[in-house]
Amino acid sequence: MILLKSIPKIDKFINNKAFDGFSKELITKISKKIIENLRKDILENKIDSINEDILVFQVIEDYNNLIEPSLQTLINATGIIVHTNLGRSLINKKSLEKAIQIATSYNNLEYDLIEGKRGERYSHIVKTLQNLTGCEDAIVVNNNASAVFLILNTFTKNKEVLVSRGELVEIGGSFRVPEVMAQSGAILKEIGTTNKTHLADYENAINENTSMLMKVHKSNYSIEGFSSDVDFEDIVKTAQQNSVIDYYDMGSGHMIDLPFNLSQKEPSILEIMKYKPSLLSFSGDKLLGSVQAGIIIGKKELISKIKKNQLLRMLRVDKITLSILEDNLNSYLKNDLDDIPTLKMLFTSLETLENRANSLKEKIDTICTAQVLETQTLIGGGTTPNRKIPSFGVTISYKDFKPNKIEKLFRQNNLICRIENEKVLLDFRTIQENEIEQIAKIITKVFN
Questions:
Q1: How far is residue 32's CA from residue 64's CA, in Å, rounded to a whole number?
Q2: Are residues 325 and 359 in the same domain?
């Protein structure tokens, strides 16, 4: 076939001047694929001519699509501060800059500068956590799910762990406490009922094979009405009286009292540590407002045993995580809470949010219909389930555009919002002050 003979030769095609400055290996790979598809189209009589300029354009387009970063910055206008799908907590820029300095230099990650010999990577955060929480020792792994697994695997292999039926939770990504326990080697012993568990349920279930009394935070739901559970303080006392380990999987732990009376049902890490628990674990990237990590604090003898578990090497964190976490924990120690973006957003006053909302409204009033209103949102990230916090937002309407269409147009420009009462809403609980001008430009671009 004449057309087949017109197909460009790969060795000549890839030397087209349009490809100057591109990776020759990648251009070759893409070109082979496009030309092979061209050959198939000719054989199937789908085309009757070849335009080499179009082929070049296709190669360059595929090349740019391949090398374009998949992870992109977004504007979170959903109002959900710890948004699991949007990267959870923001990291303070100053903390990241310090981490960059550490990561791009040799450092004392596992080197004791005083003794001049091998050191321990976890030592960099232990002193701060000891001063913050009063714990005897601490260790950090890559997330709280890892912390749960590691603790159970270390202390409860082929032994019973007592857990209330009302706390056998499933969180995002089908992470189920019973299945994690089974894989860790622990034997789950359910006590109580879904809605009510009493201290006597723990006491009556303890036997010679009981290793641990475990409490699990109900991270993404709450039981209302005719219900009760056991305070962790009582679990600690019962565990001590029976010479077994008490362990609280807090999920998302917060270091200080939260606003809007959220701490009434969500005690802080510092409150829990008053009971002198055996072990406590919580996430670094939720309400703590730091980097993704699973933090374990508690008795020194127990932490020492965890450090000897061979699984720890697979779950340990790197120098960047430790650097950011150490800096954020020091912010708590110094009471520089504005250096924790999650807390800064959570504690921002309603007056400030309303002023920012009005600032955006003034910028876009001639572009679309905008209305400032009071609203409510959630912290998110498996924290404080069903407990709403007040906020201010701006609703956006434009001609006969349906809310779904506006939401999609915004999303295509990396502005993520929510639909409430059949209107697109931009919630200022999560909109940074320096993003207002950018949002106004996106709205102008979309509707123009």
A1: 16
A2: no
3-state class percentages of the chain: helix first, strand second, coil last, to nearest 5:
45, 20, 40
Q: How many domains does the chain have?
A: 3
Domain containing 58 equals: 2-67
So what's the pLDDT on residue 229? 85
Q: At what angle do helices 436-447 and 350-364 cross, to 10 degrees?
A: 30
Closest CA to 291 of 125, 111, 76, 404: 125
What pLDDT was estimated at residue 263?
63
Q: Given the structure tokens 């909302």, which residue do they identify?
A: 357
Token output for 416 = 């993520």
DSSP code per residue over 146-189: HHHHHHHHHH-TTSEEEEEGGG--EEGGGEEHHHHHHHHT-EEE
**Same domain, yes or no, for 315 and 356?**
no
Of the residues 309, 339, 369, which one is the last residue of a structural domain?
339
Single-letter amino acid code for the residue at 33: K
Which one-letter amino acid corresponds to residue 219? S
Considering the domain architecture, whether residues 319 and 193 belong to the same structural domain is answered as yes
**For helices 300-307 and 144-155, what crossing angle results, to 10°?**
100
Residues 118 and 45 in one domain: no
Tens-digit pLDDT profile for residues 247-299: 999 988 899 888 887 766 678 999 999 999 999 999 999 999 999 999 999 99
Which mean pLDDT values do the consecutive 10-residue runs of the chain (448 residues) have? 84 93 95 94 88 93 93 96 93 95 96 94 94 96 94 95 87 72 90 90 95 86 70 95 96 88 80 96 94 97 97 95 96 94 96 97 96 94 79 96 97 96 96 96 95
Element (H, E) at 370: strand 369-377
Statement to judge: residues 203 and 163 lie in one domain: yes
At 261, the amino acid letter reads: N
Six-digit token pair at 186? 């622990």
Instruction: Say how many residues make up the chain.
Output: 448
pLDDT of residue 279: 98
In a domain, 400, yes or no: yes
Sequence-separated (6 or more) residues with CB below 8 Å from residue 171 = 219, 220, 251, 382
Boundary (domain end) residue, out of 316, 339, 362: 339
279 and 263 within one domain? yes
Please tell me the predicted confidence (pLDDT) of residue 170: 73
